User: What shape does this take?
Amino acid sequence: MGRRRILIIKHGFSETCDHKVSSVVSLGDVFRCTCLLEAFYGWEVTWITAHAAADLLIENHLIDHLYLADEPKSLPDGAISGHYDMLVNLEKQQDWCEFAAEAPAGERYGFRDWAAMGEEAFYPASAKALSTALQRDNYRPLQETLFATVGLEWRGERYRLGYQPRVIPIYDIGLNHHVGSKWPTKFWPRKNWDKLHDILS
Assistant: This one.
C-alpha cells in the first residue's frame, strides 16, 4: 500500500488571517505554513507555490513535488494527477478556489469560495478555525489556526525551511530592518535599530 497523498496550495498572494488578496507574495505567510509539513510526515506531499516563494520550499525534504505557478493555468500539464487523500487550499483567489474544487481529492480543507458569504467561503471542516482567525480580536498563533484548519491540534510543530545556507555563519544574531512593500506599516525607525544594536553589543 502506497503513502497517503496530500496537495497543499499556498503561494502567499493572500495571507491566511487577512481578508485581502495582493499582487505581492507574502513570504512570511508561506514560511509560517511550513509547520504543517511535520503533521504530514510520511505522506507524499505536493505543494503549489508562487515563483517568488520558491527559495523557501526548494530542497525541503518533506515536500515530494513542488510546483511553481502564480495562477492555475501556469501549472505544467499533468502536474496534478491521480487522487489525493487530502487537499488543503490556503489561498483565497477565485481561480485557485475553483482549481481546488475540481482537483481529485477526498478530504478538503481551507478556502472554498472567497466570493461567498460567511461560512460558505470555507470547506466545512475549516469554517470555525478560519472564520475565527479572520476576526480582528483573534490573537491565536497562526500555527494553532493552521492545525485547527485541517482538524488537528498544534503541539509545537516548527516551521520547516528547505534552504540550507552555503556560507559559514559569523554572527549569532542578525538584524533585518528591511520591510516588504506589502506591509510598510511594519517599518521601525532606524534609530531604534541602532539602539537595539548597541544594547545587544
